[in-house]
Amino acid sequence: MDVEILSRIQFAFTIAFHYIYPPLSIGLGVLLVIMEGIYLKTGNKLYERMTKFWVKIFALTFAMGVASGIVMEFEFGTNWATYSRFVGDVFGSALAAEGIFAFFLESGFLAVLVFGWNKVSPKMHFFSTIMVSFGSILSAVWIVVANSWQQTPAGYHIVGEGINARAEITDFWEMVFNPSSMERLAHTLSGAWLAGAFLVLSVGAYYLLRNKHIEFAKSSFKIALGLALFASLFQLFTGHKSAVGISETQPAKLAAFEAHYDSSSAGDLYLFGWVNDQKQEVNFGIKIPGMLSYLIYGDSKKPVTGLNAFKPEDRPPVNIVFQSYHIMVAIGFGLIALSVVGILLLWRGKLFDKRWLMWIFVISVLGPQIANQLGWISAEVGRQPWIVYNLLRTSEGLSKVVTANQVMFSLILFTLIYALLFVLFLYLLNEKIKHGPEEADKIPSEYEHHKAALERN
Amino acid sequence: MEFQFDLNTIWFILIGVLLTGYAILDGFDLGVGALHLFVKEDTDRRIMINSIGPVWDGNEVWLVTGGGALFAAFPHVYATVFSGFYIAVILLLFGLIFRAIAIEFRSKQPMKWWRQMWDVAFSVSSILIALLMGIALGNIITGIPIDAEKEFAGTFSTLLNPYTVLVGVTTVALFMMHGSIYVVMKTEGELQKKVRGWVNNAIIFFVICYVTTTMYTLIYYPNMVQHFKEVPWLFIIAVLNMLAIANIPREIFNGRDFRAFLSSCASIIALLALFAVGLFPNIVLSNPNPEFSLTIYNAASSQKTLNIMLIVAIIGIPFVLAYTISIYWIFRGKVKIDSMSY
Q1: Domain total of chain B
Q2: Has residue B151 been placed in a domain?
Q3: Are strands A281-288 and A386-388 parallel, antiparallel or unpaired?
Q4: Which end of chain B is more exposed for a tag (fewer CB within 10 A), N or C?
């Protein structure tokens, strides 16, 4: 295998592994704010136990995110040096802003969130929880802005020619608010909220099935179910907005989503299918004729730009994009259905008696995880063959001095170490879930918080 | 070389500040890691890890942000160095991953083998990180082969020679000294007494390395002292550095641990300042073709971007300092193990 394919595999692998954790942190962060907020408002100790339990899970996912995230900060330079030279002026700025505005905020207040229970007042602790959650969202803002600039470059000009060409910022805010950044940010964030919400739902359902920590599980479940309903519907809305945006900004990607080849015909919407790229047709598929055109333009007859409008070397690999996109959408609708059914049954007071539904909730934790990964595959593979859309090809972005053997070496090491980390992560997560929340009397009361704080001063 | 206080110079200084912040902060927690295995008792080891528990993650952010700032301000340096030092960077990343995971996982299980395994991982990775960073620093001083296309033209073995390894070992020694003082500050009782005894040994180890490195540099890499000849008052930095180092045993002897720690911080600042003055205006020296060196001008982003990033930094830095100071204030005092500890 050559350097290009190895570097592509390594980047895809390391970023996919990394992306297991930040969505959990972002999603759990929002839930922690709600849980601790309720605790402060009502003084109900149940919510304090709840917050403390989920903080421990949060700390674990956060540590995994940090460990795998450091790799990402340097991997552009190690494997994609030519790309780094080309985009440093623009992309590097967003990355540096993420460090200064988000990472310091998160990591600083995380210390108080995890270790500061007896060191600060309950209000200060709550403030720290909000700041950690806010920091994780800010981090998403800057990294999605940077990635969106690669999808829909704006606010830049190209300076120099040939190998010395590079993008330079002309308008910072135009770069930040490039045509796709806000929709993609909203879509990414709601995906993250789903990841957090369904983890809590899954653990809650598991406790209920096992008849353990009943009160704790039910209350956690209700909070997470609310977020799940909101986020899954918001996800549909932002996904639709993104697709409409893509029809203008990245028509090749949209065409690949639905394997639409002919630019002179209306776009169909497939429920599923298998793309035969050579014959330019979809096999074993069921489609709604004209639905794509209707969703994009509100007119089922209007033609949609097809893949044939692009030279073969400028098209993304169609079937991968088609499959990942369709499975993502299917999971998205599944999560909406699950959330709606859950809310309706909760309203009728029957939710927690339905054991079959609880089992579905237990495994539902995988839904947002798979959909988040597939969403990124749709977005990133759909952008190919470009690393920066229409400006720089992925094959041109490689490090010139790195050899295939070196990348093979690092790829093998990453594979071994990430496999080990993943097993350890699951093991410890499982241990914490089995251990469950602390019993009520083991947790110091709010009064003791204050007392401890007073004694210190 | 005409000195101009322009945006490029400001960014050279700012990245220097970020990396100095990193060296001071992660320096002590890498040092704690390097000393970790010398402590035998399980509770004492937990105290060691928890002394850096709430802060190590934030300390590492200085490195991550330094990397991001380098990418934004001097993309050619980011690209050339990280692709050129590929194997070394990958090893560094593995060190950082293992260290993070070792801290997080170590005390989560009571089994002896489990804890021993993570203790070794924590200590070895801490030493490896410090060593690799020192070796990288050494290579910046000796210069590395860079071609006209700004690409690294050597191999992994180019990076390893007696001088760069010496700088690596010196860095480990520096962090051990820095870390031992930190542990003295954060502990009490028997453990503190034991570590207090180590501080002087660590200082001696560091001073021997430091003097050897300095002689080696003066003899073989006189380019590093050119600016000191041109602007003699800069020698004050070297004097301050020696005074700061000499002050550490005095403060430790008198039991003023915090002041010893400040002295140690001051010596790190002075060391990196010496390094930066020697290097300026190059960031990566090309050896043997100095005309291909990456400087603050030919490796930089556009003036517009440097300006935008400066605004970002001016807005961000007060917040960063506020968080950092508050966290250290909240977690001041001796380490106590509780249910939320590592």
Answers
A1: 1
A2: yes
A3: unpaired
A4: N
Radius of gyration of chain B (CA): 20
Q: Does residue A452 belong to the interface with chain B, where contact is any CB pair within 8 Å?
A: no
Which residues, at least 6 apart from A440, have a Cβ–Cβ distance to it below 8 Å?
A45, A46, A49
Instruction: Answer yes or no: is B304 within a domain.
Output: no
Q: What is the CATH number of the domain that holds B75?
A: 1.20.1630
Segment 94-113 of chain A within 8 Å of chain B by CB: 95-101, 103-105, 107-112
Nearest to A253 by CA among A379, A358, A119, A118: A379
Average pLDDT of span B108-135: 91
Q: How far apart are CA A150 and CA A169, in angstroms?
A: 13
- Which among A104, A172, A409 is the nearest to B308, CB-wise? A172
With CA atoms as reference, report the closest residue to B42 among B96, B98, B111.
B111
Does pLDDT of B1 surpass 60? no
ipTM over 0.85: yes
> Cβ contacts (< 8 Å) between B97 and chain A: which residues?
67-68, 70-71, 417, 421
C-alpha distances (whole Å) from B188 to each of B31, B56, B201, B254 are: 18, 20, 20, 16
What 8-state DSSP symbol labels residue B188?
A: -
Domain ranges in chain A are: 3-456
* 3-class secondary structure, A304: coil
Cβ count near A161 (within 10 Å)? 7
**Which helix H or strand E contains A386, and what residues bound it?**
strand A386-388
Domain annotation covers residue B305: no
Q: Which residues of A touch B86 (CB under 8 A)?
A: 78, 399, 401-402, 406, 410
Low-confidence ranges of chain A (pLDDT < 50): 447, 457
Structure tokens belonging to residue A57:
């899970």
Count of helices and strands (H, E) across chain B? 13, 2
pLDDT for residue B272: 93
Cα A291-A294-A296 angle, rounded to 5 deg: 110
Distance from CA of B91 to the nearest CA of A (A): 9
pLDDT at position B110, please? 84
Radius of gyration of chain A (CA): 24
Which residue among A77, A98, A110 places its CB closest to the CB of B83? A77
Nearest to B338 by CA among A55, A4, A454, A442: A442
**Residue B206, in any domain of the structure:** yes
Shortest alpha-carbon distance between residue A175 and chain B (Å): 12
Segment B5-57, tens digit of pLDDT = 898 999 999 999 999 999 999 999 999 999 999 988 888 888 888 888 888 88
DSSP secondary structure code for residue A1 in this structure: -
- Full domain range(s) for residue B323: 7-280+310-330
